[in-house]
Design goal:
The chain is α/β, with parallel strands linked by helices and 244 residues long. The protein contains six helices and seven strands, in the order E-H-E-H-E-H-E-H-E-E-H-H-E. The protein has a single domain, classed as LmbE-like (Rossmann fold).
């Protein structure tokens, strides 16, 4: 499961990895907290509501290209995640985890990724707490039914990178502990990002980032149910068991 802030994050930050694991036969999910209604680039739309509706469709098309099985867009306010009630947002992300029951959870780091976007930072906070709390019986017990019960995700990763954007706010990136070769998935990642037509002015920036990054997507192992020393990985599912 990938937890993001805006439509296009799934493709720009995690698209190669999502497509790779789809090709390996794994079930994937993306939970996007906002419909991106406050975006600078608006594709000629006349209102936030119109932009949100179009961006939801673009997100669905992108996720289809990436082979995502379960694509969810929530209704939180774009650009305002830092103003929300933390406990309530974590409740919703926890619900998503308990329903989908992933083995691995992937999100942004608290620095806000290379863009230093505050929404990315808040998504990191929400998803990290949800990762820890989803498996606990004393957190949001009102969610429990015959089909929804505590679920302990085995590993939590933050997306990271081997470069920064000097024109953005300063960041301190999480160290790289996993490198995923997505050479064969790059064309799908580019295609998925290009489905976000309202964001066409960002295409050159995205493609320049791909050139700087190279053929790998990079991650930082932030938490694991199996404590131990950091191992450099080439597979986010290394050490994961079938138990769910």
């Amino acid at each position: 499961m990938v937890v993001t802030a805006h439509p296009d994050d799934e493709a720009g930050a995690f698209g190669g990895t999502l497509r790779l694991y789809h090709e390996r036969g794994l079930e994937t999910s993306v939970v996007c907290l906002t419909p991106g209604q406050a975006a600078t680039h608006r594709g000629g739309t006349k209102s936030d509501q119109e932009l949100a509706a179009i961006r939801r469709q673009e997100f669905a098309e992108s996720c289809k290209v990436l082979g995502v099985n379960r694509a969810v867009v929530l209704d939180y306010a774009d650009g305002q995640l830092h103003r929300l009630d933390l406990y309530q947002v974590v409740c919703e992300v926890t619900r998503q985890i308990r329903e989908f029951r992933p083995h691995v959870l992937v999100t942004f780091g608290p620095e806000g990724a290379i863009t230093a976007h505050p929404d990315h930072s808040m998504v990191s906070v929400f998803a990290t707490l949800a990762y820890e709390w989803a498996g606990r019986t004393n957190r949001y017990p009102d969610q429990f039914t015959d089909n929804v019960r505590p679920h302990r995700v085995q590993k939590l990763y933050y997306g990271t990178a081997n470069f920064v954007l000097p024109e953005r706010q300063p960041i301190s990136l999480p160290p790289i502990t996993a490198t995923i070769d997505v050479t064969n998935q790059l064309r799908f990642q580019v295609d998925a990002f290009h489905r976000h037509k309202t964001q066409t002015p960002l295409f050159p920036i995205f493609e320049n980032s791909l050139r700087q990054r190279g053929p790998n997507e990079m991650f930082h192992l932030a938490a694991s149910v199996n404590p131990g020393k950091i191992q450099i990985e080439t597979d986010l599912f290394a050490g994961v068991t079938e138990e769910n």
